[in-house]
Amino acid sequence: MMEFWLISVPLDKISCQSLEKLKRVAAKSGLATSSRLHVPELKVGTLDVLLGLSDDLSRLDSYTEGVMRQTSQCLGEVMEEFSGKLLESMLANGEYKTNQKGRQSPLKSYFQTVQVDLAAYVSRFQWDRAKYPTAQPLKTLTDIISKQVSQVDTELKSRRAAYSHVKASIQSFERKNEGSLQTRALTNIVKKEDVVLNSDYLTTLLVVVPRMAYALWEKTYESMSKFVVPRSSRKLVEDAEAGIFTVTLFKSVTSEFKAKAKNHKFTVREYNPDEAEKQKQEMGRLAVDKKELHRTFVCWLKVNFSEIFVAWIHVKVLRTFVESVLRYGLPVSFQAVLLQPSKKSMKQLRQQLNSVFKHLEPAAVTAKPDVGLEIPDGSTGQQEYYSYICYPIKINLVDPS
Q1: How far apart, in whole angstroms, are the C-alpha atoms of residue 166 and residue 70?
Q2: How far apart (Å, rounded) are the C-alpha atoms in residues 130 and 311?
Q3: Backbone angles phi, psi at 215, to 5 degrees
Q4: What is the mean pLDDT of the segment spanning 232-252?
Q5: How far does Cα 340 stand from its chain's mean position?
Q6: CA 44, CA 334: separation in Å to the nearest integer?
Q7: What is the Cα Rg of the chain in Å?
Q8: Which of 10, 95, 258, 288 has the most crowded Cβ, counting Cβ within 10 A?
């Protein structure tokens, strides 16, 4: 996991000196790395508008987090499905067998790359004026981002439902091809050459015979009716409990044969060649649909996860601007700094921040909740208030496998 703290302090002399002191101490002791984060000149508006926006942006922050979490989780799930099959294929072909323990899955490597890219974007953040024109009022910018996130949320639900529907249909077919031979679909078991087709007089039955009764079947099937074709029985498939045998006979004695078979505890399975062919075609169509949906869905998820992340960082910058104006007053006079804490030194860094900015304590009554994001399982909630403005950015993309 990578974590950043976006902090904002006034531009007064004491705060500037305190910030420089913090940077020196953090760098010398390895508490954190720091960089200036540029917040563009934005239209301030009225105090009432700013107060309303503070709440709106807090809600938008949480909403964007939720959509981003869903998008990242979905991306992991969909990519994992492909990654698993790719790995199985490589193993089956005799590849990828050496140094298995030392190798990373393609999915894990992808997520690590994404995490680095996201961290690089945060540390080199520049406001996207093309998407979010700074000449627009703050309320308009907030609405633009809100609409963008809402559209992604709606399309994600739609695409996920379509993909899940095709997956469920395929799984339904696959379940029919599993289980005992008494109930398993015959589509992938019986071939056209196994049965008599288009005959006016003859037909082929498929009979499930317990393994313990194979000898009884061979001994009795020709005598279950006068009109059974001699030596027409052939075993098509078997499992641990039974096997499926063919038998060819005249159509006119089908009922009689079925009754005799039942007496011997043999089960005659119904089989319709035309229906079986339709099922094969449907399964093939679904497989093609799923492959195409998978390809387009993964592309869409990658693009939109990145877009939502970018939007979320802009929300954080907007919140920093609004809260800085509300807390530090007009004219706009604050500076935003991005800290990347050392994983083992977060507590010490927080203590150092509280120490160097303790002169801001009287303003703490107007502080906002400390809000953060984890991907894919982050949470937003009430946390400790600080004398300075602070928004943590937690990037935690975990390989779902």
Answers
A1: 20
A2: 13
A3: -65, -40
A4: 94
A5: 27
A6: 14
A7: 34
A8: 10
The per-residue pLDDT for 283 is 84
- The pTM (predicted TM-score) of the whole model is 0.76
pLDDT single digits (tens) 320-367: 999 999 999 999 999 999 999 998 989 999 999 999 999 998 644 444
Q: Which amino acid is at 272?
A: N
CA distances from 384 to 65, 92, 268, 367, 369 (A): 20, 54, 72, 10, 7
Alpha carbon distances (Å) from 392 to 54, 180, 372: 17, 55, 5
CA atoms within 13 A on the CB side of 99: 4
Helices assigned H by DSSP within 124-239: 138-176, 214-220
Contact 244, 217 (CB under 8 A): no
Q: How far is CA 310 from the centre of its chain?
A: 18
Q: Give 301's contacts (C-beta < 8 A, 6+ positions apart).
A: 71, 74, 75, 78, 156
User: Which residue reads 């698993």 in tokens?
Assistant: 84
Reported as a single tens digit per residue, the pLDDT across 364-399 is 444 444 443 344 443 444 446 799 999 999 887 654
Q: Kindly tell me the burial class for residue 67, based on how many C-beta atoms sit within 10 Å of its own C-beta (0-12, 13-18, 19 or more).
A: buried
Q: What is the mean pLDDT of residues 293-316?
A: 94
Measured CA distances, 89 to 19, 94, 97, 101 (Å): 55, 9, 11, 18
Contact 39, 158 (CB under 8 A): no
Residues present in the chain in total: 401
Q: Smallest Cα–Cα separation from 390: which of 333, 334, 331, 316? A: 316
